[in-house]
Design brief:
With 100 residues, the protein is of the alpha+beta class. It is 15% helix and 35% strand. The strands form 2 sheets. Strands 1, 2, 3 and 4 form a 4-stranded antiparallel sheet that branches. A two-stranded antiparallel ribbon has the order 5-6. A hairpin with a 2-residue loop joins strand 5 and strand 6. It is globular and about 50 Å long. The termini are far apart.
Length: 100
């Protein structure tokens, strides 16, 4: 997590103090899509095996998704355009059906 080095911790209790090395970030939720637009509803997230709050996951996603067009990065609650003229993704257990 290279962004940790660039962000100064705010206090000794700042959770950023504990994020070092290569860590797996997991987000579990529900993907909803319609009319070429997707929405992700977060249910839980973790770094390694440690659960983290949505606000900390948002900091991570914001950092890695920054671009000249979106200097603040992507918001977890923001709708997003589906790529490649995809109209809808139907997610079921063990499969995803893509509708163009």
């Amino acid at each position: 997590m290279r962004w940790r080095k660039q962000k100064a911790p705010t206090s000794l209790l700042d959770p950023m103090n504990y994020l070092m090395g290569r860590l797996s970030v997991t987000a579990v939720g529900r993907l909803r899509t319609a009319n070429g637009v997707g929405h992700f509803d977060l249910e839980s997230s973790s770094v390694g095996s440690v659960p983290i709050p949505k606000i900390l996951l948002q900091e991570i996603v914001s950092y890695y998704s920054r671009s000249p067009e979106k200097p603040s990065g992507i918001g977890l609650d923001d709708p997003f355009a589906l790529p490649a003229r995809i109209r809808e993704i139907q997610v079921e257990r063990g499969q995803a059906i893509i509708v163009q």
